[in-house]
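QA checklist item 7 of 12: single-chain prediction sanity check.
[x] sequence parsed
[x] length recorded as 1221
[x] structure emitted
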Amino acid sequence: MNEYYLNISKILKVLEQNLNLTNKVTSIDINQHNRLFSQVEESFNELINYLKDCEENEALSSCLSNSVLKFINVFQVHITSSNNQQSQSQKEKSKNSLLFSQIDKLAIFSLRSLGYFLYSSFTVKVLMDSQVKEITKLIENTIGITKNKNICNYAIWCFSSQSFQNGPISTKLPETYIKLLSETPFNSKTIESEILNSFNTLLQQNIQLYLDSIQDWLPLVFNKLFRVENLINQIEQLKEILCFLIEYYQKKNISVPEDLSFKLLECRQEYMQKLEILLKSKNEVLAIQYWTFYTFFLANAPFVDRVINQLTPIPEISFKNDNKLIKIESFNNWKLFMEGASRDSDLKKEKKKMQLFIAPLSLSLATEKDVDVKKASFSSWMYLLKQFKQSLYEVFPIVFTPIYVNILKKPNFSKSQQTPPNEIENIADYHLGENALLLLVSITSPSQEVRKSAKQKLQALYDVVLETIPLVFTNINASEWLLGNLEPFKLAIQSRYILSDSNTPQFCFNEKIELWNAILKRMSNIDTKDEKYLLLLKDLLLFLQQLFEQMKIEPDEDSTLFFYQTIYKNTIQSIQSSILIGGGSDSNQYLIKNINSGKDYIPIDFFILNIIEFGFKLTSEQTKEHLLPLFEELLTITFSKPLDMSNRLNFIIGVMNDNLDNETTLCYLLRLWSILTSTVHKLIERSHVLLTLPPTMIDCILESISNLLLWPLRAVAGTPYSSDNSMDPCKILTSNSKLWKNTLQSMCRIFSIKTSTNPSIGYIFQTIDDLQLTNHQNYYDFILATSIPLLELYDLSFINGNGASITNNYANKRKQKNMKNQSEGEFEDAQLPKILSNLSNLLVNCHFSKMISNNPILNNSQPFLIINSLVPCFNTITNILKKCKSSTLCLVLLENMESSLILYIKDTKPLPSITSKLDSQEKYQLTLIRDSFINLWDTTLETLIQNNITTSSSINSSNYKYNSKLLEQLELLLISAFTSPVNEIKEKALYFWNETFGTHINSKSLEYPSKLSKTLKKLKDQISIQLPNFNDDNIQQQQTKRPNEINDESIDLDESYDDFVLPNSQLKKVNNNDNKLLNQYQPSNTTVNYNPNTNANNKKKFKFSDPPTDQYVLITKQVENDAATQSMTDHQLEIYEQQKLTRNSSTSFSNNNNNNNNNNSANSNGNNNKYLQDENVLGLINDIKNKLLENQSTQSLLQIQSVSIEITNKINNILSNRLYK
């Protein structure tokens, strides 16, 4: 630092000592003068070198800062001296040329040094405003006075290099530079460049100083700009001045003075000619840049004077140029032209001007194939949109929608399939479309976060941020705006863009959802009474339908499905419920015409129709995850208006019917049916409004619900059977059995308060019968399971006597009325016989003999399907009979279920050759079915017997119901029962006969049908049976065929059970491991107790017990350390079957009646006396049966079972020898 200080001090000392050197030139020796002048020159050079390094040398800067004012004082002396001698004549200067030369030289050294001082930041800090002002004035005077080219150049350079905070201080500077710009001193290119450079510096430091005179100096700048002979550096300097000025106007948002614009406009012809010269000389870029600078400051003047057409040829030529860079430059500069032209006018009101602006942009965006050019035109378009600020929505149809449609209405964009960007024919279109999507999102999305994200992406690309379109419009019609500008939203939502900044394929789903929400949000603010609202609603819904039809879903495209699910859900939620489901006087106006069918639908039906049809494109998992929740929400809205429940339900069922083609569609529709039924069930349970409806409307609702419950069966009947096990509608249907039952129960419980549900139950039964599902045997279990609650819920309160339970007022009133009008034995309900007949047909189809023949779902290992629901069905009928205790009901049942009863009486189980293919579980289920039917048969006849015993009518009365007419009706049933292979059935039939028809003692009114008489002839010699008036004369020779009589060819009543032959068909095994079968039914041991007061002839009592091998049981309790299986081994089963086949097929009858007639009493007593009764043996057997068996192991029980079979066979042989010898 000491060295710098000493050197600078030395320099300053030399300069200060020689300030008057030029004044001493005549008073000192010339040599000495030259020596001193050389020292001054050397000191200046040394100072200048220090000044060049001082910005980077802090120590040097510190030393110089202490001497700034002193140095500046030296500079002022030399510069002033030079300025003063400028007034000398040329003659005087020639005379003292050396002196004047040295003075100018010292002035130049001083200006150079001053320039460096003014450039250095340390100098600026030291100088005060007064000193700055003084220095400015000195430089101004020098520029204006000097006749030395170099002094002038360095003086101007001082203005260029100075770093004053607010620039030089002088009000005369604008005037000074106007002179410099109008006429360059010494006509020097160097000085001209320095003028432009310094002027640019001064403008940037304090532009306000020059704005008032802009109309004077800016045309001078343009004059220089349009010169053809400009140097490159001059061109850049001029462009820099204009760019800074334009930027200032843009930043401050101020208008160009009109006098300036019109003054520049006057030069248009001259300037246009020079621009054409530039174009012809291949300076197209400069030409379009100059044109843009010029037209920016013309502002609105060309449009006022209507001379804009004189200015447009230049950009038209450049837009059509084949050079990519020229096109890009043209679009970039088009921004300034649009901004300048719109700055001083209300652009939104000048349609022609807007059309002029968008013309080249629209053309380029539609036809250009270069990516960079397309981006440039897109950027210019965004720049134009920015000029409208918050009023953009007012000019949307002019400046936005047409261009946006041209951008997106490309096959590459709107096609539904995924296309990677690198495979698209025109990559420019793809990237442009992606940006267009973001643009629409950035200005319309209701979500601030989504808008912000889109704006940031666009700002990074185009440095433009647009104002958001408001959600509520104040000065225009919102419905008209949406209708007129809906196309951009549609195209954007249909597009399939992959975001370029994403690592994984993202099809802008969030952005598209926001676009759809943008429409819905603005639509929600429109008054629904607006005449354009309906048109908008129709347009939106039809677009949704088109969108769903065109969409192709891949198995793993969950994001796409989520997108469609979301926009569908948002649409539903945004529309008022009164419009969705209709209602009111103007509900008809909200009808939407379907694209495919051309039919009109209310909005909610339109939604349901499309969502159902859309589901056929989805996989089962996609349906479950995305479609079913949406369908359920639609149903909730659909049934929010109970008054219209019937119409809505009928419509949905109709849509499902129209789309039923095969088992694939059936599986999907069954899932929809499940959701629909569940919704209806909840509605019935929760809605109290339904009971307030008029009876006619309730009847319509009952009919609709009945059709809903019947739909699965109708669908099955109308669908061809498929062997594809991956699609099993039966499993879906079976899983909904509980739902089916609960819905039916709710319907009957709720609506029975106001009306009878019996017609609905009868309608369901009749429809099931009419469907004739003989080729869909795998559905029988479900069908029969649905019949059970139908039987349970049928109102039997009309039956005289102990009728069914009455749970509501309607049933109570009905019963009271029936009790008054109904006489004994009358049956007023004409519907119940039809129901029983329908049920009978169903039971016939469920019999194993029907299941064996040509079943397509079976293979060789499974001979037939076992219908598990037969057990609860028989039990339900039995319980109803026990509850009603009505002989009339029993007789109606026997009459109308004759065909099924005969079939189950004759064939209670398959032959051993068939059952051998079944496992123990299946055999056990057959046993349960057999026992449940026997229980039904027993209960039916027992009810008739008990009612006959307690009846008040005389047996010999003409009104006695067990007459010839009834006997004729029951003929086939009695024949079947008397010839049944099951002894319990025969036994109960005999008891029934003796207690009813057999009571016609000494009566000649009973006539026997011919077929029955044959059977009775065989029986009367073997068992004790009462046959009043039984002779050949009292046998009917001809009988009229009853309507419900079965076909004799189908069941031969005289054939033995053992003659049954298995058809040659392909059979397969059905896996049925349902352990609940054990709990479904516990067989009851029905004992027949004869009335001791009976008048029956005591010949032989009908008594028979089936061998134990006819029953199959499951052993479910595990015994520790027991290796035996839970059922009999295959070897044991084989032995038992062989034993059964070797037994006599004839029925054994035992005579154990305690009240024999007198003719047989002696013999019987004699027989009884022959054999002694061993009470010890009987007691021991009872103890084993009651106590000891429970503690036995499985193996022991199997052994005991085998021994018991041998004991039973031996007892049968002994009894046979005793009774029939």
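[x] summary fact logged: The beta strands are 592-593, 600-601, 1008-1009, 1035-1036.
[ ] second reviewer sign-off
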